Amino acid sequence: MATALITHPACLGHVTPDGHPERVARLAAVLKALRTEEFRLLTWLEAPEASREGLAAVHSPELVAFLIDEAGRKAGEGFVGIDADTVLSKGSIAAALRAAGAVQRAIDGVMAGEFINAFCPIRPPGHHAERDRAMGFCLFNNVAIGAHHARVMHGLKRIAVIDFDVHHGNGTQDIFQGDADLFYASTHQSPLYPGTGRASEHGVAGNIVNAPLPSGADGESFRAAFRDAILPALAGFAPDFVLISAGFDAHKRDPLAQLALDETDFGWATKEICAVAGKACSGRVVSALEGGYDLEALAASSAAHVRALMEA
User: Fold this and answer.
1) Which of 75, 212, 230, 256 has a Cα-to-Cα distance from 202 of 20 to 30 A?
2) What is the pLDDT at residue 72?
3) Helix ranges (DSSP H) in the chain
4) pLDDT by residue (tens digit) across 239-257?
5) SS3 of residue 3 by DSSP
6) Which of 14, 59, 127, 128 is catalytic?
7) What is the pTM of this model?
8) Residue 128 bears catalytic tag
9) Contacts of 217 by beta carbon, 8 Å cutoff, 6+ apart
10) Whole-number pLDDT of residue 77
11) What DSSP string describes 118-147?
12) DSSP letters along 84-129, please?
């Protein structure tokens, strides 16, 4: 079976102010890198919209109503700031609904046997969005919404998220930490925004695994964190489905952090995650784009990531 790529043109409609790092050009660079002969066997699909009910199953109804009904409507007249980093424009809500819907559609396709795994190049990203708060460029938590969808629509129980974005996914941890059947593991630079993700944070049942890396850490340190902490814990959790928060801002070229990875490290991590998923859950893997702000590094890293998914 092929690997699917699920996105939507609406994700290019989430416009941010000039100079904002989470910009339209990011997604355009990823899509251009994947529209090449090497990736001709990808199955390209358009993302549906996530339902309001699907959002409110993960986020508080108050947050959903605020973003869609209040901030979203105001954004029709210009930029609306949610915090110092997070901005809505006229197309932001449509993009956010398609972003969450892409992950749901990817899970549906894997479960139906349409494709073996999938990558969702989407924006806005999601892993900083907590149950009650949008922040850090993120409106809704795409992977957490996907995890809930996998449980409700497909009867799965144990869902894992592996996050190799350079920033800790405080939102996913916030949503997962009280449920022993939801697993979250992260490598990330520390100290760095958002200031969470200490190794001592374990969740309700050891279902949270954080492997923080110091500024300047390279691919060898990243791979050691995976081998020593994340992969054994993932295997021990024995997931029914694996989601990846695929942020590529730990790349040495990225302007928002100070790790020293390159695209081969992301490809390696993807292969290792898929290997565990192959043994635990018949290779059920869906990844969603998170960060990555140097366009050249983002394109190369996304290509390495998808190449590894296709080889799984």
Assistant:
1) 256
2) 85
3) 24-34, 52-56, 61-65, 72-74, 92-112, 142-154, 170-176, 219-225, 231-237, 263-281, 295-311
4) 999 999 999 999 999 999 9
5) strand
6) 128
7) 0.98
8) yes
9) 189, 259, 260
10) 85
11) EEE--SS--TT-BTTB-BTTBSS-HHHHHH
12) SS-EE-TTHHHHHHHHHHHHHHHHHHHHHTS-SEEEE--SS--TT-
